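Design job #97: recover the sequence.
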């Protein structure tokens, strides 16, 4: 019996990681008329991605980084010009700076890609380029003034924004 249970216990222990909670910050690198209204990392809401200064607690990540780690990122893109939105979901490799696991930065890029980086460096929130930060540098001129929803006024009889396949496209509905 011991010979059967011992391997099972070893497999279970090897498959479990100690986890830590890290704050999540979304950084929206999209065109001015697009915005990330909501996003989630492994089911934890990060809320609206912006310029990198806002933190939400907490995503659960393994306490020790290792190659091959991924996170599931789900996000909604609103196209304020077309007045539509789309939902996206992707398993994203978890990148890491040297040192302990730090804040989780989720970058939403103009080409539709997403980068997830855990790092103690806070380059995106400082608005100053930091060559030590491995992710995209902030586009301060765009991100600091980006508020596409401020020009939008919903009319009383206007329907909610419909969901489309790809809100990042700029063609008419």
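Job complete. Output follows.
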């Amino acid at each position: 019996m011991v010979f059967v249970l011992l391997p099972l216990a070893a497999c279970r222990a090897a498959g479990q990681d100690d986890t830590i909670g890290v704050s999540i910050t979304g950084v929206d690198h999209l065109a001015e008329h697009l915005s990330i209204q909501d996003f989630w990392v492994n089911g934890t809401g990060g809320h609206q991605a912006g310029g990198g200064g806002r933190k939400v607690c907490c995503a659960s990540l393994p306490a020790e980084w290792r190659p091959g780690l991924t996170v599931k990122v789900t996000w909604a893109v609103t196209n304020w010009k077309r007045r539509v939105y789309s939902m996206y979901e992707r398993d994203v490799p978890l990148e890491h700076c040297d040192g302990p696991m730090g804040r989780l930065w989720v970058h939403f890029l103009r080409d539709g890609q997403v980068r997830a980086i855990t790092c103690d460096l806070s380059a995106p929130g400082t608005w100053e380029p930091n060559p030590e930060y491995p992710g995209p540098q902030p586009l301060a001129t765009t991100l600091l003034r980006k508020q596409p929803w401020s020009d939008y006024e919903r009319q009383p009889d206007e329907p909610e924004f419909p969901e489309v396949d790809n809100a990042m496209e700029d063609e008419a509905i």
